[in-house]
Specification:
alpha/beta; N Utilization Substance Protein A, Chain:P, domain 4; OB fold (Dihydrolipoamide Acetyltransferase, E2P); GMP Synthetase, Chain A, domain 3; 15 strands; 22% strand
């Protein structure tokens, strides 16, 4: 067992980083429990292990008696004086009670108990080492998966990335090298657990600190950060030094710094904006590339109403509302984005004004007038001079005669005059002389004569 112990000591010392003294203490305690089965409940029994050689000895402190009544607690005077000459009755004597063979059962029990204690010691060491590393970025290798959780080998230790801490757009395979953020080190009933995350907003914050030296030395400060992992992140940066461009420092020469961060985030979009204490400027920057028409701020409710043109609405809101939602998180204000209706309202007012003029001049109701205006006939002059009654009838879906009346009223309203058509006269009888002349010239056909009657 000596060689086994030494090999075990060396393995845990090198591979797990557990000190030999810790292992010896654990083994001595384990062997003390196991020895009670093979040796018995000896008085004040203790186990002594030689660290370098691995020798194991068992000792008990017995009381010297003339006559022994309890062999587990007493030793007779004659045996005691062979060990320590001159000892007197009633004295305590430490005696080596190590059996020749510690016993197969005792050794197996000791090994199992020691392994349990060593695992506990390893967990305590994990907690002591990582309890102050919460908030750091660590690197490891994917080891296995359990119910959607990813277990990552961190070298001497193992961390777990729960499903809620994963990025939905990322796939992991056993053996993949990954970097993750240490969310917490929890010392629960099952021992310490290193909780890792790649979806946490502070993962991006730590990446910026590692890539941007100005952030690391506090020249540039990340004032706020909002993230939807796997899709988009907004970072608001600020510098008290007027000579330092905080956005440029984070982007880097030709975008080198932010490219490294985006690469680590698997091409997640990262928006870097300049922080401002003016909520109007901050919201304007955060909603880019959308062009904002107007901003209304309610200080009491901490809400911002942003209005944009129709063509800018999709940019301002973003895919599935991400741009507006992240802007609200970044600023800490309730941000609402709406379409700007002022131009539309102005247009509708013009339509209503033109329709009112046409309705009055042409003697029609407002609804029919609006139909004419929306069809391009937006003035009485156009209605009177540029279209005919057939076009008007087609637009309003009315008879042509009624459309002609509308047009005529428009003509009168614009100062024109309606032409009066002469009434159709009855046809006069044609004189006989004219008929004869026509027959001579062939202009009028002669009536057909029945040949029989003519004969």
């Amino acid at each position: 067992m000596t060689n086994e112990l030494l090999a075990l000591f060396e393995y845990y010392e090198k591979e797990k980083g557990i000190k030999r003294d810790t292992m010896i203490d654990a083994l001595e305690t384990a062997l003390l429990s196991a020895s009670r089965k093979s040796i018995g409940p000896a008085r004040e029994m203790r186990i002594k292990i030689e660290p370098e050689k691995g020798d194991i000895r068992a000792f008990a402190t017995l009381v010297v008696r003339d006559r022994v009544t309890n062999p587990y607690e007493e030793i007779d005077i004659f045996t005691a004086r062979r060990i320590s000459p001159g000892i007197e009755v009633g004295s305590d004597l430490e005696v080596d009670i190590t059996p020749k063979n510690f016993g197969r059962i005792a050794a197996q029990t000791a090994k199992q108990t020691m392994m349990q204690r060593l695992r506990q010691a390893e967990k305590e060491m994990i907690y002591d080492e990582f309890k102050d590393r919460a908030g750091d970025i660590v690197s490891g290798t994917v080891r296995r998966f359990e119910r959607g959780d990813v277990y990552i080998d961190l070298g001497k230790f193992e961390g777990v990335m729960h499903q809620r801490e994963r990025v939905s757009t990322e796939e992991y395979n056993v053996g993949d090298r990954v970097r993750a953020y240490v969310v917490a080190v929890e010392n629960g009933a099952r021992g310490p657990e290193i909780i890792l995350s790649r979806s946490h907003p502070n993962f991006v914050r730590r990446l910026f600190e590692s890539e941007v030296s100005e952030i690391a030395d506090r020249t540039v400060e990340i004032r706020s950060l909002a993230r939807e992992a796997g899709y988009r992140t907004k970072v608001a940066v600020y510098s008290a030094d007027e000579k330092v461009d905080p956005v440029g420092a984070c982007v880097g020469l030709r975008g080198a710094r932010v490219k490294n961060i985006v690469r680590e985030l698997n091409n997640e979009k990262v928006d870097i904006i300049r922080w401002s204490d003016d909520i109007r400027l901050l919201v304007t920057e955060a909603l880019k590339p959308a062009e904002i028409k107007s901003i209304s701020v309610d200080e009491a409710k901490k809400s911002v109403l942003v209005k944009v043109d129709e063509e800018e609405l999709s940019k301002a809101i973003g895919r599935r509302g991400q741009n507006a939602r992240l802007t609200a998180r970044l600023t800490g204000w309730d941000v609402q984005v709406q379409r700007d209706e002022s131009a539309h309202e102005a247009f509708e007012a013009q339509v209503a004004g033109a329709a009112a003029a046409i309705a009055k001049g042409a003697g029609i109701d407002q609804e029919m007038a609006i139909m004419l205006v929306r069809s391009g006939l937006n003035s009485l002059e156009i209605l009177a001079n540029d279209v005919d009654e057939v076009d008007i009838a087609g637009i309003l879906e009315i008879p042509v005669e009624e459309a002609l009346e509308i047009r005529n009223r428009a003509v009168v309203a614009t100062g024109g005059s309606v032409p009066v058509e002469a009434p159709e006269a009855d046809e006069a009888p044609v004189p006989v002389e004219a008929l004869a002349a026509d027959e001579a010239t062939g202009a009028v056909e002669a009536p057909e004569v029945d040949e029989e009657s003519a004969g």
